[in-house]
Amino acid sequence: xxxxxxxxxxxxxxxxxxxxxxxxxxxxxYPSLFWYVQYPGEGLQLLLKAxxxxxxxSNKGFEATYRKETTSFHLEKGxxxxxxxxxxFCALKESQGAQKLVFGQGTRLTINP
Amino acid sequence: xxxxxxHPSRVICKxxxxxxxxxxxxxxxxxxxxxxxxxxxxxxxLMATSNEGSKxxxxxxxEKDKFLINHASLTLSTLTVTSAHPExxxxxxxxxxxxxxxxxxxxxxxxxRLTVT
Lengths: 113, 117
Hints:
The complex is a heterodimer of chains A (113) and B (117). Chain A is mainly beta. Chain A is built from no helices and 12 strands. With 117 residues, chain B is an all-beta fold.
């Protein structure tokens, strides 16, 4: 079945550092790809998404590009802030019309001032 | 907009008892809600899809008689863990599928931490 693999955490960085969280997927069709963020004590929030190959999702300084050839959707940010500390989940939906999400295991990110 | 609440946020119950968790969409109607279970340092595992006015669809390996789901209105779905045992201790998260202006995305509740003693 479809699956998502994220880099193991936790990840600890200093403020203004460059961030990459790796995400690769296995899917039989043409999935839509997502990054969700979970701040402490809150529910998951959609951070960004991409629905087809070579699409780039972006939001709040974060970016991820849908790479079909490498089956990847790595999350990047050029300069992280303390407020970016959270757990980040990569996820896929089998197709645009599908409802079910398949999640990676999550990566805990801590940014130190 | 698109806020989903869960109640309670934490619950401790004794082995053999049942516990009900509520999931509410506060500012939109959701014909479809999802229930997930999250183990420590693991991904969210979809347990079931809940459709308003009809029976829930359970994922393979999830016992429907143990995890009772009711979606009686467009803003409320409940998950009842029956005859709970310590192995049912986990973090349960719901989401609601927003339609129309909410772009058919899933909006997540903050989760409920269940501890069975």
